[in-house]
Write a structure and sequence with these properties.
The protein has 479 residues and is an alpha/beta fold. It folds into 3 domains: 46 residues, no CATH class; 141 residues, Alpha-Beta Complex (Aspartate Aminotransferase, domain 1); 264 residues, 3-Layer(aba) Sandwich (Aspartate Aminotransferase, domain 2). The chain has 18 helices and 15 strands. The protein is globular. The protein binds pyridoxal-5'-phosphate. Pyridoxal-5'-phosphate (PLP) binds next to α9.
């Protein structure tokens, strides 16, 4: 086994750093061998990788889950350094919606790189950016037809807030408890999914938070949608009376489905009411669709899934299949009020990223991935509901399309159990399936496979989850 690993690593040109730590590789090899006999796949991170990671990468990045050493990616899989294929139900955190390294996207990137590498917009103008803007105008909800191109989700959010403040001339913003909008100081000031993200943050002024819709809190004798709407009315009324008047509020920003905060799906009526209240008070409504966008909910955007159109939208992640691209979208009427120079970027709308986005849109349409997302989402949901009946560890399953949250609880107390969840995710990874996590206490399994996923792959992934939950319950490996 050890020889096999070394030969494999030699073939991939990484034997020298590994030779520097023969002892630990040996130990790891033995563990892997023993584990393999039991049918378990051990994550085999070479000691040299760990050392290099911890020497030169900031711990804030380097200590995440699962730090799988990979040498490649393809379709729904990562190719591990250990030579195994790992079924990826994270989509690189909701990015590779058309699958990892889709051949048509790769081809578009190669062609683009042969022509134009850097597009400092303003200095030059080029076809891919113009074409992408036209394509986005076609697939976004009607009325959102003008775009600012940046590099990331955070930047798309920052752009949205700046635009809202600029065009309304108002200073304040309302966001929702539990939402995540990014990690720069402005976007972070709006984000409350976890307090650890905000450590030592002196939030920008003029940000107010109210609770997100949470149907789980609905009293048993009430109808959840109506109750959520009444709570929203109450919370906003209270905010307007005690803290900030609506005339001072530029925009209300939210994720149309709570992402990082635990995959909570608000009732449609709640979003409809929010739209009405914003209209009544001349407040702009901003949807952060960084995670919900680009097909994840079974439509291009959650705005279309819910039938509620915001004034401004932030888009990133899945748009360019892995290349950095963020978009702030609004109506032409609104965007025309953003005066020249008020906002700009050096790299935003990079020509290669724009071509990757155009290819991504083509693939989603040619391969009917929105329909596949809805079908596979329903298929996975049915299976997960059955798993929830079987395993007391599953407290709740929530989903729209292929945006699926599986809440893990302590069966004794019914309380969210982030510790057990981490064990489950590690074990699943050892068996070759990657899930991610979310929720304020890290208690929700985030299942977001590529939209190309098929029934066999869902069966494969959920079989592993089933087995791992059974092991946890039994307190020992289950064959
Ligand atoms: C809803 C939402 N908004 C914004 C962001 C920030 O995006 P990025 O990491 O590309 O800056 C994320 C990232 O996870 C997100 O999920």
């Amino acid at each position: 086994m050890i020889i096999r690993i070394i030969v494999l690593l030699f073939a991939r040109g990484i034997v020298i750093p590994l030779m520097a730590a023969p002892q630990s590789l040996d130990a790891r090899g033995r563990n892997a061998e023993a584990a393999e006999e039991k049918g378990v796949i051990r994550l085999n991170t070479p000691e040299s990788f760990l050392k290099r990671m911890h020497r030169h990468l900031a711990p804030t990045m380097a200590k995440d889950f699962p730090n799988l050493p990979v040498i490649g990616e393809e379709g729904c899989y990562y190719l591990g350094l250990d030579g195994r294929k790992y079924l990826d139900f994270t989509s690189g955190i909701a990015v590779t919606n058309v699958g990892h390294r889709h051949p048509k996207v790769v081809e578009a990137i190669k062609r683009a790189a042969d022509r134009l590498l850097h597009g400092p917009m303003g200095v030059i103008v080029y076809e891919s950016a113009l074409k992408l803007a036209e394509e986005l105008a076609r697939i976004l909800p009607e009325g959102l037809d003008s775009f600012f191109f940046g590099n990331s989700g955070t930047e798309a959010v920052e752009g949205a807030i700046k635009l809202a403040k600029h065009v309304t001339g108002k200073p304040c913003v309302v966001s929702f408890t539990g939402c995540f909008h990014g990690r720069t100081l402005g976007a972070l000031s709006l984000s409350t999914s976890k307090s650890k993200y905000r450590k030592h943050l002196h939030a920008v002024s003029g940000v107010y938070q109210i609770p997100y819709a949470d149907p789980r809190g609905c009293p048993p004798d009430r109808e959840p949608a109506r109750w959520c709407v009444e709570e929203l009315d109450k919370n906003l009324e209270h905010l307007f009376q005690h803290q900030v008047s609506p005339e001072e509020i530029a925009c209300v920003i939210l994720e149309p489905i709570l992402g990082e905060g635990g995959y909570i799906v608000p009732p449609r009526q709640w979003l409809v009411r929010l739209r009405e209240i914003c209209d009544r008070h001349g407040i702009l409504l901003v949807f952060d669709e960084v995670q919900t966008g680009f097909g994840r909910t079974g439509q291009w955007f959650a705005a279309q899934t819910f039938g509620v159109t915001p004034d401004i939208m932030a888009i990133a992640k899945g748009i360019a299949s892995g290349l950095p691209l963020g978009v702030t979208a609004a109506s032409r009427e609104l965007m025309q009020k953003w005066t020249p120079g008020a906002h700009a970027t050096t790299f935003g709308g990079n020509p290669i990223a724009c071509e990757a986005a155009l290819a991504t849109i083509r693939v989603i349409e040619e391969e009917n991935l929105l329909a596949n997302c809805r079908q596979m989402g329903a298929y996975a949901r049915e299976k997960l509901d059955k798993l929830a009946e079987k395993h007391a560890r599953i407290g709740d399953v929530r989903s729209v399309g292929l945006m699926i949250g599986i809440e893990i609880i302590d069966p004794e107390t019914g309380e969210p159990d982030g510790e057990a969840l981490l064990k489950i995710l590690h074990r699943c990874a050892e068996y070759g399936v990657l899930f991610y996590l979310c929720g304020n206490r890290g208690e929700v399994i985030r299942m977001i496979p590529p939209l190309t996923v098929n029934r066999d792959q869902i069966d494969e992934g959920l079989k592993v989850l089933d087995r791992v939950l059974a092991e946890l319950e039994a307190g020992h490996p289950v064959p």
